[in-house]
Design a protein that fits this description.
Layout (H helix, E strand, L loop, with lengths): L2 H53 L1 H8 L2 E6 L6 E2 L5 E13 L6 H18 L5 H13 L5 E2 L5 E2 H8 L8 H4 L1 E10 L7 H4 L14 H5 L1 H5 L3 E9 L2 E4 L13 E4 L3 H18 L3 E8 L5 E10 L2 E3 L19 H11 L8 E3 L5 E5 L2 E4 L6 E3 H6 L3 H12 L3 H10 L17 E2 L11 H6 L4 E2 L2 H12 L4 E2 L4 E6 L2 E5 L4 E3 L5 H16 L14 E11 L2 E14 L6 E8 L18 H18 L22 E3 H11 L2 E4 L7 E7 L2 E6 L15 H10 L3 E5 L3 E5 L12 E7 L1
Parallel strand pairs: 2-9, 27-29, 30-32
Antiparallel strand pairs: 1-7, 2-3, 3-4, 3-5, 3-6, 7-8, 9-20, 10-11, 10-25, 11-12, 13-16, 14-15, 17-18, 19-22, 20-21, 23-24, 24-25, 26-28, 28-29, 31-32
């Protein structure tokens, strides 16, 4: 056989073997692909099971649950002013739904048309025909829950709703479903807004709360209750049986030391000054000398085109600043205590140049050359050179002694104020870092240290109080239904900050500032004021600028101190100067902050230390409160809060109205204020009367307490600006 034939026969024999191997390879590939697919499917299934059970487990378990125990929120406590005025409260609002299958069929269909008409008036987003159609369809579809409106109803609206046909048969008979929620409400939204503060609704954000709301959150919150709830729809849970509830315990109320009348007056005075000088911010604190009770605290910062309670400049970090010359009182106290032989007649040379170099380029300057001054004059004229030379003379060899006196005066640590967020003082210590050769002289005049206004006021208050430093406080007690839970008494921080001799000298110096010194412009003919001006250059980018931090702090009456007060106006601008002229915009405390202090002191003094502006007594059998006249929006807010009916017969542009009760309704009538005529303020609260009259250019004097019962210049008389009008007050 030829070779060719042999090869052909061999190929014919190998062909089946190759086909068999090829088929085996195809089968093996398919098996592997199928196995991989099964593995991948298994892994996907395992991942899905893991995702559903672990990642989304709570979600699906929640959907499967039809009953669960839920926490019932307690009613949050109220915040009151000292005389019982309401500063913050929780008002009830209601989400309203219906189970249309509950009502008796005859009652439901007989009243469906009138019920729909009433619902259309209360919820105008749907007309009468739509309401009738939706209610009929919901009943036919056997729906157990139909939300009437996404909008919450007030208590007054709920009362109205309960009188609608079908609903007036009662909750159980009508199928009406109510879900109550509370909203925080401030009757005077701008007054002490930053002090009252707020608390976020979300539990995880509560740390961002501010003011009294967060500081006393534990007391105000109360204790939540428990109730078994039935799921009736997505995220809709309703109590199954009220008998199964653990009732929540309402939060405690807190009574503050604030006087609403004074708070309002101070707010208006400070706001007017900030607007006049286009300042960046300002604050005022008025405190009772003997007790440390804060009677008014106002914090105003730029808010859009106006000023509002934005930051806590009086107490918090945003108010920490170099105090400037008000700190000279602390330095003078340290000198008098360290060297008892120093007298107010001693002299110091401040040089005819008005400048003095301490170290290298560290040059101390005065606003004008003074030459030789007595210690008393150094303080009254607020000489930087004089004060720094005196401090340097007695403490340069041992600056730690100066710091130790400040420590003894209570100026190096927080006061322990009741509100969260109190700023800690920043006072340099020679034994720590940051001390240089120029620190002592500059520190003596209020630089290279930072204090919050409250801390400065506490020290001045101690001088007025004969040396006893009181801890400032703003909450007097917590209580529930007239049962006191905790009472906060006045607390002495330092029984005697320095000797009686030093106190006596410092008091004379503070009086001298107003009688002969930098604050002569606020001297009063009715009572004496004692205090100190403070003007500090502000630092920007580590460089002192022409922009000033101005303040005045003191007490009154100087001979028998009853109130201490601090006024801060930050970065004021000269209203008559070009914004680009930094030199012309240099304003000092004597012309900016001190006059504000005087206005506040005169209001307090003239009103015989407080008039209860918001006192109300029943006028008739239905117990309507006394709201004889006043600012329209205030009266409307009060009536809405108390649920009183209103009949507004005044024009829409009228701001000031007179009122009269008629049955259970308060009637509002016009109280026209004609241009060039004396306003009619009879029946008004004192704060409203003062606001109207002073804006008209009149000077107000008061006699008695209560509301205005008569005015010395008759209403609608020809207005003569700067004329004195005497208001007689009574109940």
């Amino acid at each position: 056989m030829s070779t060719a034939n042999q090869n052909f026969n061999q190929d014919q024999a190998d062909a089946p073997n190759e086909r068999s191997a090829h088929i085996q390879r195809l089968i093996l590939l398919r098996v592997r692909v199928a196995f991989a697919a099964v593995v991948l499917f298994g892994l996907a299934a395992a991942f899905r099971i893991f995702y559903v059970q672990i990642i989304e487990g709570d979600k699906w378990r929640g959907l499967a649950v039809t009953q669960r125990e839920q926490t019932l929120k307690a009613m949050r406590g109220n915040i009151y002013a000292a005389n019982g005025d309401l500063l913050a409260t929780s008002l009830p609002y209601y989400r309203v739904a219906i189970d249309p299958t509950v009502a008796d069929s005859a009652v439901f269909f007989r009243n469906l048309d009138s019920l729909s008409a009433n619902l259309a008036r209360l919820f105008p987003e749907k007309d009468r025909a739509v309401w009738a159609k939706e209610l009929r369809e919901a009943r036919s579809a056997n729906r157990k829950y139909k939300l009437l409106s996404k909008n919450l109803l007030t208590y007054q609206q709920l009362k109205q709703l309960k009188n609608f046909p079908v609903f007036n048969t009662g909750l159980k008979e009508s199928g009406l479903i109510l879900e109550k929620t509370d909203k925080r409400f401030n009757p005077y939204p701008e007054l002490a807004r930053r002090t009252i503060g707020f608390i976020p609704a979300e539990e995880q954000n509560r740390r961002y709360g501010r003011g009294l709301e967060i500081s006393f959150d534990k007391q105000l919150s109360g204790t939540g209750g428990k109730a078994l709830h039935q799921k009736i729809g997505p995220n809709l849970w309703l109590p199954i049986n009220e008998d199964l509830q653990i009732k929540p315990i309402d939060g405690l109320d807190i009574e503050t030391t604030l006087d609403l009348n004074l708070q309002d007056t101070v707010h208006r005075i400070l706001k007017s000054a900030l607007q006049k000088y286009q300042a960046s911010s300002g604050c005022v604190i008025v405190m009772e000398v003997q007790t440390g009770e804060i009677k008014a605290i106002v914090n105003l910062g730029q808010e859009g085109d106006s000023y509002g309670e934005v930051n806590n400049y009086a107490v918090g970090e945003s108010g920490l600043a170099e105090p400037g010359s008000t700190f000279k009182l602390m330095s003078m106290a340290a000198i008098l205590e360290e060297v008892p032989t120093v007298t107010i007649q001693d002299t110091v040379q401040t040089f005819q140049t008005g400048k003095h170099k301490f170290y290298d380029d560290a040059v101390m300057t005065d606003v004008m050359p003074y030459g030789k001054l007595s210690v008393q004059e150094v303080f009254e004229k607020s000489s930087n050179i004089g004060m720094s030379l005196l401090t340097y003379k007695y403490f340069r060899k041992n600056p730690l002694r100066y710091y130790q006196w400040l420590e003894k005066f209570g100026l190096t640590k927080p006061l322990g104020f009741q509100m969260a967020g109190e700023a800690a003082p920043y006072v340099k210590n020679p034994s720590a870092g940051g001390w240089s050769g120029s620190t002592l002289p500059w520190m003596s005049i209020g630089y290279e240290l930072k204090l919050a206004p409250l801390h400065t006021l506490a020290f001045y208050n101690a001088i007025a109080n004969g040396g006893k430093m009181m801890q400032p406080f703003i909450v007097k007690r917590t209580f529930y239904a007239n049962k006191v839970s905790e009472e906060y008494e006045p607390r002495v921080l330092i029984p005697q900050i320095c000797s009686s001799r030093t106190i006596s000298i410092l008091q004379k110096m503070l009086e001298g500032v107003v009688q002969r010194g930098t604050a002569q412009n606020i001297k009063s003919t009715h009572f004496k004021i004692a205090g100190k001006t403070g003007t500090a250059e502000k630092v920007k980018n580590r460089i002192y600028t022409e922009e000033h931090y101005t303040s005045f702090v003191g007490y009154f009456p100087a001979d028998k101190p009853k109130f201490s007060c601090i006024v801060v106006i930050d970065a004021p601008k000269n209203p008559n100067a070009s914004p680009d002229n930094a030199q012309a915009n240099r304003l000092f405390a004597a012309e900016v902050a001190a006059p504000v202090f005087k206005k506040i002191a005169e209001v307090v003094y003239a009103s015989s230390i407080y008039t209860d502006l918001a006192s109300m007594r029943p006028l008739n059998s239905v117990g309507l409160p006394t709201i004889r006249a006043g600012y329209k929006s205030d009266i409307v807010n009060i009536c809405n809060t108390l649920g009183l009916g209103l009949n507004d017969r005044s024009y829409s542009f009228t701001e000031w109205v007179r009122t009269a009760p008629k049955g259970d309704t308060v009637i509002l009538d016009d109280r026209p204020s004609l241009p060039g005529k004396v306003p009619d303020v009879r029946g008004m609260r004192l704060r409203d009367a003062i606001y109207l009259l002073e804006n008209a250019g009149l000077k107000v004097r008061c006699e008695g307490t209560g509301r205005v019962i008569s005015q010395s210049i008759p209403p609608s008389s020809v207005l003569k600006r700067s004329a004195i009008i005497v208001l007689k007050l009574g109940s």
